[in-house]
TrEMBL record:
Keywords for the protein's UniProt record, in alphabetical order: Membrane, Transmembrane, Transmembrane helix
Positions of the EamA domain: 4-133, 146-276
Name listed for the protein in its UniProt record: DMT family transporter
Organism: Gillisia lutea
Pfam short name (any one): EamA
Regions crossing the membrane: 36-53, 65-85, 91-110, 119-139, 145-165, 177-196, 208-226, 233-251, 257-275
Amino acid sequence: MNKKAVYAIILCAVLAGANGLLIKYMSAMTTGSIAWFRTAIPIFILLPFLVKDRELDFRGNNKKMLLASGINAIRMYLYLLAYIYTSIGNTVVLFYTYPLFVTAIEALFFKQKIKPKQLYLLILAFIGIIITYLGKPFSFESRDFIGMISALGASIGYAVTVVLFKSETHNFSRNQLVFYQNIVGALVFVPFLISLPSVELDQLGMGVFYGFLIGVVVFKLFFYGLRQLSAGTATTLMYLEVVSAILLGYFVLDEPITLNIVLGGILILTSSIFISRKSK
């Protein structure tokens, strides 16, 4: 096994785990402004490479890709909202239910049969979600409720985009895929920039850094590792993002690691890992 590739994926997961910290640090900005930095910075960085490599001639199903990009913009907004309203642990654990939703979507819309073991894993993950939320109020006045519902919404949205992008990977280069992933968000979140003049300079700098680190560096590290490793190994290693995020939240922000998060997270992640392997 290529050690450099393994280290690249591990570093990718650890950096991705810093998502929550960076988002919470930018709390002075609106959610839409943060979303703009996350989607627009990768576009600005990728455009020169797309021009240089003559990849601006998109030959695949552009309508489908624009639809996926639009869904991804909504998913991004919900993802950021989740981190703002609830703890890093709650958000990252619930977001990583997305492989389960991918399986459900493929079964419902693409008529792929769900095997009995997959059904058991889906039920196990659902139990994990319930355990994670135990003891919290079901009310839109509850920040945890809003955040955790947003995290699940982001997970579903991401699952939809995974299915859509996966169906077009043979028609687009990696840079083109990242471009399409972000382009609609970079446009629709522009109106939120009206609030930026009142934001301090260090917050703006963090927005640029956030878009570069999460939108470019993390993806480049993942693709580098993916070239050398099997998809199953790479995606399994990426689950280290959950551990990284929870530990960073605990040590930097003093967020508690509750028994609910630990037990619910174990059930959700175990289900997600095994269902990801079975779908490959």
